[in-house]
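ERR on first pass: missing label on line 2. Operator R.T. fixed the label and resubmitted. Corrected input:
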Amino acid sequence: LAVARRRIRAQAPKPEALRRDALLACLALRLHNRAAMRRTLLVTAAVLLPIAVLALVSAGANQLVERTNFSAVTGFSYINAAQCAGNATTNPLNVEFNIPGANGGTFTVFASNKQPAAPTTGGVTLCDETPSPNATPPVAAGPIGSSFQADSAVKDVPVSGSDVVKAAGKTCASAENDDVWICAHWTNGQGGKDVASAIGHFRLQFAAPAAPSNVRVDSGDSKLIVSWNASTGGNTTADHYTAEAYLPGHSPLSEPAHPNPDPPDATSTVTGTSTTIGGLQNDTPYTVYVVALSIGGNPSSRTGGGTAIPRANADFWDVYRDRGGQEAGGCASGSGGALALLGVAALAVLRRRKP
Amino acid sequence: VRRLALVASFALAIAPAAVRAQSPIWGSFELGAGRYRPNIDAQPGLSQPLPFGDIFGTGRGWAFRAGISHAILKYPGTLEVGFRTGFFRESGKSLEIVNGQITDTKSGDTTAFNIIPTSLTLTYRFDVFAERFPLAPYGRVALERYNWWVSSGSSAIAKKGATNGYSATAGVALLVDWFDASLARELDRDTGINHTYLFADVTKSWVKDFGSSTSWDLSDDKLSFAFGIMFVF
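pass 2 clean. output:
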């Protein structure tokens, strides 16, 4: 503090400013002037903002997101290769939108390759609803499925990815990172058309990362602790990883002896290179694989295939007792506690005698 | 002449240092760290491999301490009564259980041994000449109470308890004020810290519930060396 004050004194002559700055110096050595403090606060805000955004899990007002494939970091929802080829039942886009006040009437979902225009005279921003092939550049647009009842402001609907891609004039061979907009338009119960909307910015992402390598598995109590080396190379970078555990007889592989792949019996998804798969049965062998996924959710091939067995385990206390330790736990000795109390009492007496 | 010079030097050494204006002294506050390893494996009758070494290895962990003391005598030297507390933690891998038996196979789960050592201390610091020659030797005796707990892989507390004992310490403190007296005076004026010492000491502890047969030995398995910083205020 004294050193900081000395440095401050050389820079700022006003004693009242010195006092304030000395307090700041107590909080962080760099904060000895307001400019530095402002810079530090800005940096702190820049670091914390993405963390706050990551907490976004549902569509905000007038927003439309793909619930399982939305990145709060980039602000895009993604359409991956499986969704591009899928329909509303198989690998759908799990769309959620939020149109405040919408209750009654109908919703219609549209997709377009054109960014929604600025608000119309009614104050509503809308996707193009029909194609304009003669526009420059040409606009591809169209409805996705049929209109449906607007019975709540927030709706979760499965949408066919292949229909979205087709309506937006794209294909599953389109360029990586092409943009598509999906909008929900509300026609209210009084016949007012497109009185409000929710808009989502989607990005086509079809490339898959390379598989991770060197999968290691440690057993724990009702869990397996899995680690691996990060994916390197591939057509895109790995955004996250999923570790999968399969019971005996279950397999993700399709092979002559096992024609239908099984879903994993337990999984754990992380962005790092280790995780714990919990909720497993002790003394049961599990086969473990790890898959790298792109930001859009395109999987690499599986790595692993090793088997590990979750086991109950003995902590230090169990081991100590098992090997003949006599400590019983609790406050074994009363005499030490009594001596300590005597010491405290002596301190209290000394303080009382002080004039 | 030589004899006179010797007498003069001695007189100069024992003469009180020039008294400088300083704030009243209440006591001291210290922060320290040192290496420590409980002597649990020394208990007679334990089977091989010995449990502490098997789980936590053979290294010595770091123990951190903070203490506050009240000066009850200020001349000659300083006599203080105080309270210290701190934290020690050692972690390692649990052992797998197969068919109800503990095996030698390490689990992926972690187990940890945690101690919060607390002490009531009586310290004498010979600091009469510290402002002339910046070293102040000191000695300390303490009543010790080590509150401990063992945590398992799920971070649950598997067992907890407390073990009592006592310790003796010898050390030396280096008066940092000696290197920049004007800064020390400024520090005193601004914060009330009269002196700042860096210290190093060695402790012999006996923490095994005064020989109880149902207690483990949490004394250090060797002499404990520690170092830290102390503020007299």
